[in-house]
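4.2 Preliminary Data

To establish feasibility before requesting continued support, the project team ran the inverse folding procedure on a target of 171 residues. The structure was first converted into the token representation described in Section 3, and no sequence information of any kind was made available to the design step. The complete token record follows.
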């Protein structure tokens, strides 16, 4: 009888500690040039693997460990400025759905280079033990390039036989 009671106790403990949230995608490394970019932007995508919808809060669990990140801001249910550590509202994620609601920003301290990480914790509004902690890594590199705008080519040439000027501009 004691063995059966122990077995059911273990099963109940495992069933009650299930995690409903899992990671779908995280930007593996956000590269920032501190000389030309004021901040780095990273994204995290989550999946609610439970059979019912849940509301989730977000908390900044830890802000960097090397001191390169000056501050951060994030967007989840709303966009929050530097200094905010927990979202005031929740994001509802339907059963088996992917949430694309998170974006995290890291502001560079001076023009230092190196790696730093911000840890975010997403937790169920009804059960704070149902949580997922996700690191978002930032590389501050003075030699990193930024996205350059694509220039369109325009060609202009005359046709002297007809006194006409041709202008080719892609649509």
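Position-by-position output of the design step:
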């Amino acid at each position: 009888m004691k063995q059966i009671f122990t077995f059911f106790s273990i099963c109940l403990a495992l069933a009650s500690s299930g995690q409903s949230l899992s990671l779908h995608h995280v930007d593996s490394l956000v590269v920032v040039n501190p000389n030309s970019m004021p901040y780095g932007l990273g994204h995290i995508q989550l999946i609610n693997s439970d059979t019912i919808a849940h509301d989730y809060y977000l908390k900044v669990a830890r802000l960097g460990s090397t001191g390169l990140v000056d501050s951060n801001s994030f967007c989840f249910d709303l966009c929050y400025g530097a200094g905010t550590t927990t979202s005031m509202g929740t994001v509802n994620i339907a059963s088996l759905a992917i949430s694309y609601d998170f974006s995290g920003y890291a502001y560079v301290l001076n023009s230092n280079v190196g790696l730093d990480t911000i840890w975010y914790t997403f937790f169920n509004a009804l059960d704070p033990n149902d949580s997922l902690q996700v690191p978002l890594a930032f590389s501050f590199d003075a030699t990193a390039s930024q996205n350059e705008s694509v220039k369109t080519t325009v060609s202009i040439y005359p046709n002297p036989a007809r006194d006409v000027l041709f202008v080719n501009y892609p649509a």
